[in-house]
Amino acid sequence: MIFILHRDRLPNMRRPARMPRVTATGLLIGCLGLALGAPVSRAEIYRDPSQPTPTFSDRPSPDAEPVQLPPANVQNFPDPPATPVNQGAAPAPFTYEQIAIIEPADEATVRDNQGRIRVIAEVKPPLRAGHQLQLLLDGQPAGPVQRSGQFNLTGVNRGSHQLQLQVLDGEGDVFAQGPAVTLHLHQASRLAPARGATGN
């Protein structure tokens, strides 16, 4: 025996609800209208209530009603910061590696009755264009500026003195200077012991 069950006669069985039918064109326009950051002009969407299931289309039918779509969700993102152009590292300022008085040595003793002192200086790297050397004796200029590293002093009094070398720029300002050295100048005494004879 074969039983045939009719779905309409079963009390506990429910028919599945029908989903609204959306055309491909309507779905595409809806997605474009909701896209982030993409303001587009939206076409009119129409809903036809005369059909058994709601039907949406971009072409109106005699019974179609326009559908009011919510405004598109548009977000404005700030422009990314401009990337600075790499100009390269700034060149290091020029400096002299060595500004030194080689002769006489520090704490040297010089013997000369005329007070003559020969000074030899060394500058590394060599002097730049426009730079000159100034020799100081006890903090005062000992002669005019020059580019040569050899100085000849005369008439220096005996005793202890300090020598220092400076590098002057084109404006005559001190660009750099080296360490001071101390020298001791000895001279023979001009006083001789008095001699005399006495007789009766």
What does this structure look like?
With 200 residues, this protein is mainly beta. It is built from 1 helix and 13 strands. Strands 6, 8, 9, 11, 12 and 13 form a 6-stranded mixed sheet that branches. The longest helix is centred in the N-terminal third of the chain and has 11 residues.
Which key terms come to mind for this protein?
200 residues; mainly beta; 13 strands; 4-stranded mixed β-sheet; 1 helix; 6-stranded mixed β-sheet
**Mean pLDDT, nearest integer?**
78
Spans of at least 5 consecutive residues whose pLDDT stays below 50 are 1-11, 36-40, 192-200
**Coarse shape:** rod-shaped
**Major beta-sheet overview:** 6 strands, mixed
Percent in helix: under 10%
Return Rg in Å.
Answer: 53 Å
What distance lies between the first and last C-alpha atoms, to the nearest angstrom?
Answer: 188 Å
Class inferred from helices and paired strands: mainly beta
> In percent terms, what proportion of residues is strand?
25-35%
Number of strands: 13
Number of helices: 1
Order of helices and strands: EHEEEEEEEEEEEE
